[in-house]
Amino acid sequence: xxxxxxxxxxxxxxxxxxxxxxxxxxxxxxxxxxxxxxxxxxxxxxxxxxxxxxxxxxxxxxxxxxxxxxxxxxxxxxxxxxxxxxxxxxxxxxxxxxxxxxxxxxxxxxxxxxxxxxxxxxxxxxxxxxxxxxxxxxxxxxxxxxxxxxxxxxxxxxxxxxxxxxxxxxxxxxxxxxxxxxxxxxxxxxxxxxxxxxxxxxxxxxxxxxxxxxxxxxxxxxxxxxxxxxxxxxxxxxxxxxxxxxxxxxxxxxxxxxxxxxxxxxxxxxxxxxxxxxxxxxxxxxxxxxxxxxxxxxxxxxxxxxxxxxxxxxxxxxxxxxxxxxxxxxxxxxxxxxxxxxxxxxxxxxxxxxxxxxxxxxxxxxxxxxxxxxxxxxxxxxxxxxxxxxxxxxxxxxxxxxxxxxxxxxxxxxxx
Length: 416
Prior knowledge:
The chain is an alpha+beta fold. The chain has four helices and 24 strands. It has a six-stranded mixed beta sheet with strand order 1-24-20-19-23-2, with no helix packed on it. Strands 4-13-16-15-14-17 form a six-stranded antiparallel barrel.
């Protein structure tokens, strides 16, 4: 008797078909949802600079070069022009105020001085003669008064005699009246002479005062002439060290020409040129520091010059404490101009990536170390060594800080 044969439900073909369908479905899902579609590039890790994000003390500053200058300097200029006749000291000499430095010769000036001095002496002599004439006139006026007083005394006595004789009828009326007239005339003359003497006296006092003032001015002018002549001797204006002095005998120096300077021995200052981008952030009293011979020294901005030239402006900085003992005038020293106080912050080392990204994103290395992914970040301030991280990175993460120019706009670096 025949019996029915049951077909197998899971045949080899069916199983293979289902496996193929499942693989195809997974492939479709992988391609649509699972596969990493980000653009990538293969990079040798040895060619990258990879650093670790850390938490450290961060301080914003900029490095600038400061040139050493004396703290205070007095310039030496030729007040009078002339030819260098003698040089008494050399550049670098220590001077005391009043020490002769050089002597100029100016024959034209000396001849003019002699002529002017002669005219002044003549003017003084004329004024002295005028003063003597005033004294002589005063004596003449006094002599005139004395003579008048003598004449009045005689006329008065004569009049008194005539009056007695006339009373006794011993003389005529005419003789009496003549005597009376002479007496009154002498009195009137005396009164007029006294008034003239008073006027002459007032005028003489005023003239003598003017003459005396003129004589004093003449002597002052002569003193100025001598002083100008002495200016041909160039002397140290203060105590200090002579510098920038390069003068040879026989050279002609014009009036007002710079001859050198005397550096006071009271310390040094540093002059630095700051980029004009920081003009609004630099202020008097702003602190800076420098490292020299293994020690750190503090400075502060003392003066800000307003002129901007060549994209920068100069500032003077003074040491706030001890200054290095062995720095020299004209020496260039790098210092750090501070814009903030040290504070705790997430930081990464500076690198070439900033030129490409502007600090807006960075490649972050996966913990596996096999690839790095682009990530948006936000950076804050910066200094010579670090960028301050405000958002996007955590302490301990590793990032690529070398230049990104070879990577184009790829979102993923395969480290292989």
